[in-house]
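[job 4471] stage=fold_predict status=RUNNING
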Amino acid sequence: MDCCLSYTNPRFPTPPAAAPARRPPISLGLRATRLIVVSSASSKSKCDFGGLNAPLEPRTPAGRLLSGVCLDDRGGFHAASRRELERLAVQRDEAAARLQLSLGSDEACLHRRIAEFRHHECQDAVEDVMYMLIYYEFSEMGVNLVPPLSKCAYNGRLEIWPSKDWELESIHSAEVLQMVREHLRAVAGCRANSNVTDSWATTEVQRFRLCEMYAASILYGYFLKTASLRYQLERGLDLSSSHYGLAGRGQHPVSEMFAAGSSYIAHGRVSSPRSAPASPVSYPLQNKPESLRFYMMGFDHESIQMCAKPKSKEAVNLLERHTSALFGDEETGLLETDDVLTTSFASLKRFLLEAVAFGSFLWNAENFVSDVYMLEEN
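[job 4471] inference complete, writing structure tokens
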């Protein structure tokens, strides 16, 4: 006998009822959504989310405003995002200016506290803006972010449907897509051309390990975006340049360096890799790299870390919040749990493709925001 758990997120809220005993479902306040978790007699379950949904809920007025714009005026979404960023920049800068003017006066302590409060308030709002920018890119593809696992996994079984693999792969060039598929194979054993039987074969994975793979895949997507743009920039340099590429020949394929994942999770928090200065290497002009793959083969470990590291603290905070909301235990909020999930390789592939796309969109959002609002360097 099938059982289902569903929730709705109405566009026009009704008057508040009595306080619920459990935390309300997380949504972005957009169109009516429904999450269905089905358990059949064969013990197979399906996570089917047919509307617009995301693990994080906007926690600031700026985020809530943009979630409404995303629904009612998609054509004006980026203009509205820019206006919000400009407003936040003015608020933060005005508070900092008043602090400078008050130095040496009796009111300096008060203005310092106001400036610190405004800084943190604006940082939270900017993270919401970045998240909505990422969410907008997913919604443009018609892809819904996977809901929190506490609301999606049923009796230890996690299945994600529809897969949306084609949409999630379509954002990459053919060369980058091949490297993404190699990453999926290295991280989770997902084969690019597996048959239906292999795709729906089941595997068991600890929730914490799945979180590691998801976080590492986000950073891999961010890395691919950084490396691709750097490659395009350096190919456009004058041919007389004596330096091309970053560092000496790497000993391992880049995808394998993201496979472990454990270096990106520390004590229940997502951590970005530490960076080190990259030393340029001279390539003979006749051996100038002609492909992104060959270019990336010149990366050493430090260069890979540099390209995979988000440039701003806001981006790191957002990555941590998103991952915690997605994987955190509903009661304790902790990521480090011993839960074991049963899932198919098809669902695992869909899960990690979303993470790679999230990393690419995180780079885009960070770049969009930094044009208007000065982010805090990571």
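[job 4471] summary: The radius of gyration is 22 Å.
[job 4471] exit 0
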